[in-house]
Structure formats: C-alpha cells, structure tokens
Design goal:
Shape: globular
Strand content: over 45%
Strand order of the largest sheet: 2-3-4-1-5
Helix content: 10-25%
C-alpha cells in the first residue's frame, strides 16, 4: 500500500490545494513507474464519518480517467481498517491506543 494519501493534480485544484510550495519528491507507482510530485499537508480529510486532521498527501499527475487519488497510510494509520472484499465495503473505526 501507499505510505501517503495521493491526489491528482486536477483534484488538488478542485480542492483549492496549492502544491507549489510543497517539497518535490519522486514517487514509485504500483506499476514501477517513477513520477515527480509534491508533498502537501491537508487540513483535514473525511471519508464518510471518519475524519483525520493534518494529513500528509502527495499531489501527483493524473493516475487515470475518473480517478482522483487513493487513500494511503498517512490517513489509514489513524483507524482500525476492515475491508470486505466480497461487498467492496470499507469500514473505518477510530483507533483508540491503549
């Protein structure tokens, strides 16, 4: 899985996220391609009722038509994650450390 949440350039523009001042980095995609992108910190990220604040994300070139990005560990590490492959349902429960 991805270490960071990734969002496409076009999705970043729709969200009014300006990556211009974020550090540039090279990212290796799942298919082995290397692409350049910029790292930003999102004020917050909501997926359904799950919310995380100050989430690191990478703004990358368009991953493919109709794709805005993907959830990475910079968001998911804050939750207990259950993915039901049969139904395609993702459940996120707030992580409560001991």
């Amino acid at each position: 899985g991805a270490a960071l949440v990734t969002i496409s350039d076009s999705f970043a523009r729709r969200l009014r996220v300006d990556p211009a001042h974020g550090p540039e980095a090279e990212f290796v995609m799942a298919d082995g391609r290397k692409v350049m992108g910029r790292i930003v910190v999102l004020d917050s990220l909501n997926v359904g009722s799950a919310r995380a604040d100050r989430v690191e994300a990478a703004v990358l070139p368009e991953p493919g038509e109709g794709l805005d990005g993907l959830l990475g560990m910079s968001f998911l590490k804050q939750f207990v994650v259950h993915l039901d492959g049969a139904s395609g349902r993702l459940e996120l429960k707030e992580f409560a450390p001991k």
